[in-house]
Design brief:
Blueprint lengths: L13 H36 L6 H34 L6 H8 L4 H30 L7
Length: about 140
């Protein structure tokens, strides 16, 4: 099956098309990562709920994973909305989707999905710091 070259976007270099393809590929990889996130959330959620006598830390962990998952879901949904705006709704924007993303970066969708991802990264980094500080505080036997 051969495609007609007349169907290709006019006045676009191969680099411009590569950048647009890469943007869509990145969104697809984000969808894969979201699937991993959903799987890990489900496993952790079921594990925490299966604990018979929950301590306060169990409830805090449950709240933490629910918050991180909710923010991940919101971020993924807004990223998909932004790509829909760039690649479908405003496809004839001067400079195509790449220029749309650069020039329209004050739109609420763009601002909120970036803010959500930043907060999610802070929460994830905080958990890593907590785990590392806990692991560092465990006394270790000295081996000769």
């Amino acid at each position: 099956m051969s495609l007609d070259p007349a169907w290709a976007p006019a006045n676009q270099t191969s680099f411009d098309l590569w950048v647009e393809r890469s943007s869509l590929d990145g969104v697809m990889l984000g969808g894969v990562a979201y699937g991993v996130h959903l799987t890990l959330f489900s496993l952790c959620f079921n594990m925490i709920l299966s604990i018979k006598n929950k301590a306060m830390v169990d409830w805090l962990n449950l709240g933490y994973i629910c918050l991180v998952f909710a923010l991940g879901t919101l971020g993924n949904a807004l990223t998909l909305k932004w790509c829909e705006m760039a690649f479908v709704d405003n496809i004839n924007f001067p400079g195509r989707p790449v220029a749309f993303s650069l020039l329209e970066n004050t739109d609420w969708v763009y601002v909120v999905f970036n803010a959500v991802y930043i907060v999610n990264l802070w929460l994830s980094d905080g958990l890593l710091v907590r785990i590392c500080s806990f692991a560092h505080s465990i006394p270790r036997a000295v081996h000769c």
